[in-house]
Amino acid sequence: MVLLAAGVTGCSKNEEKINIGYMGTLSGRYSDLGQATLQGVMLAIEVSPVGERVNLVVRDDYGRPAEGAALLDEFSEAGVKYIIGPNLSSVASTVVPLLGTYGIFMMSPTASTSSLAGKKDNFARIIPNNSRKQTEGMSSYLINKLKINDIVILYDARNASYSNDIVKTFTESFMNHGGSIRDVRPFNPDSRERLGSLIEKDSANPPELYYVIGSAMDTSLIIWQMKKRGFGSKILIRKWATSDDFYRLGGEAVEGVMLFDYYVDQNSPAYAEFAKAYKNRFQKEPSWMNVYGYEAAMLLLNGLDDIQSGTNFVAALSKASAKGELFTDIEFDEYGDSYLPLHYFIIEKGETAYQGIAE
Hints:
Blueprint: E1 2-6, E2 18-24, H1 31-47, E3 54-60, H2 65-77, E4 82-84, H3 89-95, H4 99-102, E5 105-108, E6 123-125, H5 132-145, E7 150-156, H6 160-176, E8 180-187, E9 209-213, H7 216-228, E10 234-237, H8 244-250, E11 258-262, H9 269-282, H10 288-308, H11 313-321, E12 331-332, E13 338-339, E14 342-348, E15 351-357
Parallel strand pairs: 2-3, 2-4, 4-5, 5-6, 7-8, 7-9, 9-10, 10-11
Antiparallel strand pairs: 1-3, 11-14, 12-13, 14-15
């Protein structure tokens, strides 16, 4: 897919517009993530005073690392120096090491692999990486607050940079806190393997909790298999899964599902203004994916003048974050890795119900 979308008109005829790229997964199994974050990016450009100076250059990486790497040539030829994206950690892991060669800077809304943390590489991101601190907080909460000690992990092996990262750090921290990981089972959405086969061996003795690390479609289908078999296990999922498709496909089966996430105050004036603008533009309620796309774009736009005047990329983003859009407590370290406090949620009546801080 190739699309060149101009920003809001009104720019001086003598002022050349800035081409900003969007690299996302707009086709295929993970397209819900790319399409939703793109909507957030589009809205940010439309409402930002800086947006009238911007042309948004959109490219589809199809969720494939090699495709993402090849797109850097296209962006470079189009004069793009700043890219919002990618969505998937597997794509980011391939693309980010190449950015310096092209002189391109990248802000990802959703790529959380820890393999890119602690590096000076022209890369920053809104979502915190899958750090030890994150999994320590989750493990402590599960064991000490929820009294869960027996877990089976099911994970999507295709997005390995994301899933393997989480499995490794979570397994180590959960066991260090005294918990038991009964089994770790990969699945590949591209194979013909029945998702129900992942849990067949547990029929006589289901675990206390399944931790499912996968896309909206696969996670909802796995949950349906658990419910169909009458398993009473609790279910923990990742933010990655909670798109509109997850609730549509999961229906009543996802009631009571747990997740750890980062908190956005939906009662704040900033969120109310964002939600109103989003509903007017797209005729539906915003999701977390729209929020992250919007916030990534807003931080880049708010820092654009400083970046262009020679301010360090990460320093400019840190300065922009102090103004506060939707994440008023976000912090960036010197490497462009963000920090947000972790919170605990349960899905109730098709929505994530806030239960409290998990750290």
